[in-house]
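Usage

Read records sequentially. Each one opens with the input sequence:
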Amino acid sequence: AVNLANALSQAGQESFLVATRDSGPLEPLVLDSVPFLVLGKKNKWDLKAFWKLHKWVRIHKIEVIHAHSS
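and closes with the structure output:
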């Protein structure tokens, strides 16, 4: 995800990165040009984290979301 977000940004595309629980060891690799949000999700149904993501998407007018879980 970090590589994709960085590559899009370097190609001149607006790119954002969100971590659901915590930032993790790859955070230092995220370019300064890629806004990064940590949701701090506590469990599967964390509504606070959901609304935080919803607000982030709305504020930044994000149209495409690439997501995966582990």
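Summary fields computed downstream for this record:
- The CA atoms of residues 41 and 47 lie 9 Å apart.
- The chain has a mean pLDDT of 94.
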